[in-house]
Write a structure and sequence with these properties.
Layout: E1 16-23, E2 26-35, E3 40-49, E4 55-59, E5 62-66, E6 72-79, E7 84-91, E8 97-103, E9 106-111, E10 117-124, E11 140-141, E12 145-146, E13 151-158, E14 163-171, E15 175-179, E16 182-188, E17 190-191, E18 194-195, E19 201-207, E20 210-225, E21 230-235, E22 246-250, E23 254-256, E24 265-271, E25 274-281, E26 284-290, E27 294-296, E28 303-310, E29 313-319, E30 326-330, E31 334-336, H1 342-346, E32 354-360, E33 363-370, E34 380-386, H2 400-407, E35 411-415, H3 425-429, H4 438-453, E36 457-467, H5 469-480, E37 486-490, H6 496-502, H7 506-513, H8 523-526, E38 540-545, H9 554-565, E39 570-575, H10 582-585, H11 588-607, H12 615-618
Parallel strand pairs: 34-35, 34-36, 36-37, 37-38, 38-39
Antiparallel strand pairs: 1-2, 2-3, 3-4, 5-6, 6-7, 7-8, 9-10, 10-13, 11-12, 13-14, 15-16, 16-19, 17-18, 19-20, 20-21, 21-22, 22-23, 24-25, 25-26, 26-27, 28-29, 29-30, 30-31, 32-33, 33-35
């Protein structure tokens, strides 16, 4: 059997599944493929019949939504020429479809229980062709661009007459869901004229132009409703944004669902009075059911990457460390329905991470490592990966760069330092105002434990890399330790003060992670890699996106300029398009070039010991 090699283009051969929806015996989801030739992604809505196993397809479509009566399927289709979004409604049996709305900015659609009306949530801006004007904060947001006076728009659309029956506006970042024939609206709470984004919310019940305030200054939002009961995700009140999200039911009284589990809640849905939800658990994400008591539906070393439920049947996407997500059905037992990538993985060597636990200061920490194929007594270089966040989580999901670099002969080491998701709330909060201190020691102690487990790992050839918080930690590691002989920092932070003032979330996130009073708090200098740049001895490649508003470009440019001014070996790759998540959401050619840079930098600095980094030679043939 012929094999498939890991390289910068291998990702484009995979099929990617998303947004599963279930109604009766049908499941719809989005199938995405990368088209390298045309440098774009192609989305197809797939409708699976559970009983017959047949599939039908709607090309150039996304966001499938079954009507409550199961007879219709709505979907979104982009109009590239007009730069608008189109909402279509198809007959489920025939898949003949009609366009019911074309609008410039649509973010969310939901059927009403009458299977006729839609709630359409979008936004509007000033859209002056010459300038942007703002009197609120922030002025921009990652992957959303400049707000330019943005407000959230709510439309009630009749799909039969194709007319908008009602419309109203709320401040930016508002959201809503149907609650019978009313709409539950989540609106960011304001304090002293400033929005308390993602920390406090005011919740209203809107019906026929009249509003009733259900909650004021709460730390949860309405995420689902069955017309009688509202499902809320968050907490009644948070002191810190980094606290865990929990679940509550509201039908005039508030009822806690999963407080006793002590872990962070992911997605949640209501179904016939029962609550289904995912939970982050020490490197895994599993699905749970509450029906008076809580029981776990899935058990395993995997991530449930999205689900939908109808009548006790659950359609979900499950991914492991060595297999991309596929579609599964739970109806009392778990069954795999798709195997899009199976034939590829039969020909592609993958590497199973090995789990280990270690003591770091006052905590027990989870770590993993991947062992490459080695000849007897052969030494191999090591790459340490650091996740984003800091409330991110590593574990049992498919990480392309890890598999890619393991195939090239590198040990891969990754841990969940304090601050990570998947553990109790105290674990998550320990990193606040101490970012780069004990969490960095956790990483170093994990590497130390790894060396005890794998004596063939080369202690003299250790690299480090990460994105976002992982990029910050890469910058920090190279200024604080001589262990690392090369680093790739992506979309990372180098100076917390400018991040506070420049980032889309700096006014609240940085003030929590680094500390209040940024203009006078010494933490903003003490915990910034920029001020230790003279300590850097290893070569570094900084990768950033021009359109990253979460960790803006100034962070890498400042670090790069300071390094070069001190005659350090440093390189910077600035991608012209793409938001903070450009590493996985950039165009296919964008991603291929990034992967090529990633591989070749470590090859030249940890294996070949080459000076310089000839980017034209490295990227030749990738245009």
């Amino acid at each position: 059997m012929s094999s498939i090699e890991w390289n910068e283009r291998t990702f484009s051969r995979f099929a990617y599944l998303g947004d599963p929806q279930i109604k009766g015996d049908r499941i719809a989801y989005v199938l995405t493929k990368a088209n390298m030739k045309d440098n774009r992604y192609e989305n197809t809505v797939v409708v699976e019949d559970i009983e017959t196993g047949t599939r039908r397809f709607i090309e150039n479509a996304s966001m499938p939504r079954f009507s409550p009566d199961g007879r219709k399927l709505a979907f979104m289709r982009p109009n590239g020429e007009k730069r608008t979004s189109e909402i279509w409604v198809a007959d489920v049996e025939m898949l003949s479809a009609k366009k019911v709305l074309e609008a410039k900015n649509v973010r969310f659609i939901q059927w009403n229980d009458d299977s006729r009306r839609f709630l359409v949530v979008g936004f509007k801006r000033r859209d002056d062709e010459d300038f942007i004007f703002e009197d609120d904060v922030p002025v921009w947001f990652d992957n959303m661009g400049f707000f330019d006076g943005e407000t959230t728009t709510f439309w009630i659309l009749d799909t039969e007459s194709e007319e908008i029956l009602e419309e109203f506006e709320k401040p930016r970042f508002s959201s809503g869901i149907w609650h019978g024939n009313a709409i539950v609206v989540n609106v960011p709470h304001r304090e002293e004229g400033k929005p308390a984004f993602f920390k406090f919310t005011d919740i209203y019940l809107w019906r026929d132009g009249d509003e009733e305030k259900l909650f004021e200054k709460v730390s949860f939002q309405a995420v689902d409703s069955d017309g009688k009961t509202i499902l809320l995700r968050g907490k009644p009140e948070k002191k810190k944004l980094s606290e865990h999200d929990l679940l509550y039911l509201y039908d005039s009284e508030l009822k806690a669902i999963n407080e006793h589990l002590g872990k962070n809640t992911g997605q949640a849905r209501l179904d016939d009075g029962r609550v289904y939800f995912t939970l982050y658990e020490a490197g895994s994400i599993n699905l749970y059911l509450w029906d008076g008591d809580v029981e776990r539906i899935t058990v395993g070393e995997h991530w449930v990457m999205g689900f939908d439920v109808d009548g006790g049947k659950v359609a979900m996407l499950i991914e492991t460390a060595t297999r991309l997500r596929e579609l599964y059905l739970y109806d009392g037992e778990l069954k795999q329905l798709t195997d899009y990538n199976g034939p590829l993985f039969e020909r592609l060597r993958t590497f199973e991470p090995r789990h280990f636990r270690f003591k770091s200061l006052d905590l027990e920490i989870d770590g993993w490592y991947i062992r490459p194929e080695l000849n007897e007594d052969e030494k191999a270089p090591v790459i340490v990966f650091v996740h984003g966040g800091p409330k991110g989580m590593y574990g049992h999901y498919f990480k392309y760069e890890m598999q890619l670099m393991a195939s090239k002969g590198y040990y891969i080491v990754f841990v969940n330092p304090r601050g990570s998701n998947g553990y109790d709330e105290d674990f998550a909060l320990r990193v606040l105002e101490r970012t780069g201190l004990e969490d960095f020691q956790d990483i170093l102690n994990g590497v130390k434990k790894f060396f005890e487990l794998e004596p063939t790992a080369d202690r003299e050839r250790v690299g480090i890399t990460g994105i976002s918080y992982g990029g910050f930690m890469t910058n920090w590691a190279l200024t604080q330790s001589d262990l690392f002989k090369a680093g790739i920092s992506e979309n990372g932070i180098s100076y917390w003060l400018t991040s506070y003032a420049f980032s889309d979330i700096g006014l609240w996130f940085d003030k929590e992670v680094i500390g209040d009073d940024p203009l006078n708090n010494e933490n903003y200098r003490k915990l910034s890699p920029l001020f230790y740049v003279e300590n850097v001895k290893a070569p570094i490649l900084l990768i950033h996106s021009l359109e990253d508003y979460r960790c803006p470009l100034d962070q890498s440019v400042m670090f790069y300029h300071a390094l070069k001014d001190l005659s350090k070996e440093a390189y910077i790759a600035i991608f012209k398009r793409g938001a903070h998540g450009h590493s996985i959401r950039g165009s296919p050619k964008h991603r291929a070039k990034r992967y090529k840079l990633f591989v070749e930098f470590f090859e030249r600095k940890l294996k070949k010991y080459e000076e310089g980094f000839d980017v034209e030679k490295i990227l030749k043939g990738l245009e």
